[in-house]
Amino acid sequence: MKLLMFGVAVPLWFSELSVGVGEEWAMSDSELETLRQSLSQLKQQVARLESEIADREVPAVWAPQRFYSAFYAMTGFVLGGVAAMASLLFNVIGSTVAGEHPLRIIGVYLTFPLGEQALRLTSQGGSDYLIDDGVILALGCCLYIGTGMVLGVVFHMVISMLSEGRPLIVRAIVGTLLGVLVWGVNYYLILVWLQPLLFGGRWITDNELLPWWVALSTHLVFGWTMAVISPFGEYRPYRRLTD
Q1: Which of 37, 99, 163, 192 has the fewest CB atoms within 10 Å, i.e. the most exposed one?
Q2: Which residue ranges make up each domain of the chain?
Q3: Angle at 236 between CA 231 and CA 237, to 5 degrees
């Protein structure tokens, strides 16, 4: 049988084939749209998973955006104790060489909380305290080191901000300037009026009890020690062995 299409007679089987091909193309377009929708959903899911991974992933190297004050304050507190022990050892050796009591500086240092009677702790007669003089001097050493730990925060932060990563001579210069500054402020701007006000005497700043150069050298040894050991308190980001 033949059909008349556009004025031309064509076989019936050709007409059926054309209809079949059209239906097949129509089904292919529908399937393609379905695939596109599925692909879009998969892309959205991938983007969501990537976002979750990025939020939960720990960076290999974390670095502070600014000066890491909290870290340097903590490490300065520890290093200050080491520097205080070094300066105390310097005074013990110096006092022994000069024929004085090894802890003479501690006796003078304790006049701030205990007054003039603290000077007897390092004298031959001893003091009248109920607690043994050796125990009081030991507590004075702890107080001395504790004060150094507090000062270590200031020293380490300033040295790190001004000279971190620089040669030792640069750090030593900064430590020297800090030592002189802290000595001058403590002795001639604070203690010179605060101790008489609270305890009725000026023993720490008395050159006969504690010469100014001894006090200054103590602060310098502290500052130099902080300059030497400051690299041990530098912040270094943790790096995994696989990086």
Answers
A1: 99
A2: 17-56, 70-233
A3: 175
Contacts 24+ apart (CB under 8 A), 214-217: 214/91, 214/94, 214/105, 215/183, 215/187, 216/179, 216/180, 216/183, 217/90, 217/94
User: For residue 152, what pLDDT is reported?
Assistant: 97
6: phi then psi, degrees, rounded to nearest 5: 55, 35
Please give the pLDDT value at position 74: 95
| CA–CA gap between residue 153 and residue 80 (Å, rounded) | 7
Q: What is the pLDDT of residues 1-14, one digit of tens each?
A: 544 444 445 455 44
Distance, CA of 154 to CA of 181 (rounded, Å): 12
Answer for the pair 179, 220: CB distance below 8 angstroms, yes or no: yes
Closest CA relative to residue 187, chosen from 208, 202, 173, 172? 202
Q: Which two tokens stand for residue 18?
A: 């054309």
- Kindly give the parts of the chain with pLDDT less than 70: 1-27, 57-62, 124-130, 238-243
pTM of the model: 0.73
Give the up-direction half-sphere exposure of residue 42: CA atoms within 13 A in the CB hemisphere.
Answer: 6
**pLDDT tens string 86-112:** 999 999 999 888 888 899 999 999 998
Alpha helices in the chain (DSSP H): 12-56, 69-97, 104-109, 111-114, 133-163, 168-185, 191-199, 212-229
Q: Using an 8 Å Cβ cutoff, are 142 and 108 in contact? A: no
